[in-house]
Write a structure and sequence with these properties.
The complex is a heterodimer of chains A (272) and B (73). Chain A has 272 residues and is mostly helical. Helix content of chain A is 67%, strand content 8%. Chain A has helices at residues 21-42, 50-69, 74-94, 126-158, 166-205, 210-240, 257-271; strands at 10-14, 17-20, 104-109, 112-117. In chain A, 28% of the residues are buried. Chain B is an all-alpha fold. Chain B is built from three helices and no strands. Chain B has helices at residues 4-15, 17-36, 41-71. The relative contact order of chain B is 0.20. The chains are: A mainly alpha (272), B mainly alpha (73). The interface between A and B is medium-sized, with 21 and 16 residues.
């Protein structure tokens, strides 16, 4: 029988803090990133060698995306977005390494002997993804307040643009803002945890087929890291978007579309 | 009789129908756009990934419900 634990298992505790196996995974992921950053930046060259290229490759990729799509605050959010991307990427791909989730000690739980791994993929723990989502949430709210002022940001969230629909749109906007917290964390957690369960179940059915899922896991690892970083970036862009006076340009936020859809209808009516 | 596994199976099975259709529509439109105008690939990439992610989130919600049904007693 396959044993899967939804929450990370506690390993030991230092004073009042309990250390779980997913925390170990997150620490190892940050250590890998720190070591790579220190090692490469010590001996950085204009013409990179292989190690430097390997570290620069994901950064250059996310740098290009943030520069092109990051809106007017892209310089300020680039460090955070790039860190989120690379941290989740390393944490996700670590989950595929042999030993992660498989090496551990045996404990008895409800009379059953179960394996408690020493290291667990960090994103397979809701605490990890929720922490990242809270950071992203605080960032886009903070940028919204900094760029538009506290009153301006509150007005945009609570009283959106078509004034007549504001009592209806205000709560929807508020709820959609709050639900970003849940959807960001649940998406990453669900994907990574489902991947772990998939590997475990396939391992029980037929270990020969596991390599197929490994390829899939590599793909999902980078896609989910990219999706988390892109969504965090897009929320900042939406919060800091510049609101011109009525009708100066078509570059409004998502609530600008009802106004715009009137124009083609009116034009075609007058034309016909 | 414990119907919890059936509930979990139904939750993810029914919950995957909508996102499946949505992903199909989204990807087919993106492919169409790239086919008509291959240069649009770079501009399409970020909105495409975001749209896919938001559509897929619905399936993930169903998955989370199923997982909670199975693992949280």
């Amino acid at each position: 029988m396959v044993h899967v634990s939804l929450k990370a298992e506690p390993l030991f505790s230092i004073g009042p803090w309990t250390v779980t196996n997913s925390m170990i995974g997150a620490w190892i992921a940050s250590l890998i990133l720190l070591a790579a950053a220190v090692y490469v930046s010590r001996r950085a060259r204009i013409v990179p060698n292989r190690t430097q290229s390997l570290v620069e490759l994901p950064f250059e990729f996310i740098f290009g995306v943030v520069r092109d799509q990051g809106g007017r605050a892209w310089r300020q959010i680039l460090p955070l977005i790039a860190t989120i991307f690379m941290f989740i990427l390393v944490a996700n791909w670590m989950g595929i390494l042999p030993g992660v989730g498989t090496i551990g000690y045996y404990a008895t739980e409800n009379g059953e002997k179960v394996l408690v791994p020493y290291v667990r993929a960090a994103a397979a723990d809701l605490n990890f993804t929720l922490a990242l989502a809270i950071v992203a949430f605080a960032t886009f709210v903070g940028f919204g307040i900094r760029m538009q002022g506290l009153g301006g940001y509150l007005k945009e969230v609570l009283l959106p643009e078509p004034k007549l629909l504001a009592p209806l749109m205000g709560p929807i906007e508020l709820i959609s803002n709050l639900s970003r917290l849940i959807s960001l964390s649940m998406r990453l957690f669900g994907n990574v945890f489902a991947g772990e369960v998939l590997v475990l179940v396939l391992l029980a059915i037929g270990p020969v087929f596991v390599f197929v899922v490994f390829g899939l896991e590599l793909l999902f690892g980078i896609v989910q890291a990219l999706v988390f970083a892109l969504l965090a970036m897009t929320y900042v862009v939406l919060a800091t978007i510049e609101h011109h006076a009525e009708g100066t340009s078509g570059a409004e936020g998502d609530h600008g579309s009802p106004n715009q859809s009137n124009h083609p209808a009116g034009a075609s009516a007058s034309g016909g | 009789m414990d119907l919890t596994p059936l509930a979990a199976g139904l939750a993810i099975g029914l919950g995957a129908i909508g996102p499946g259709i949505g992903l199909g529509i989204g990807v087919s439109k993106a492919m169409e756009a790239i086919g008509r105008n291959p240069e649009s690939y770079t501009t399409l990439f970020v909105p495409f990934v975001l749209g896919i992610a938001l559509t897929e989130a619905v399936a993930i919600y169903a998955l989370v419900v199923a997982l909670i049904l199975i693992f949280v007693k």
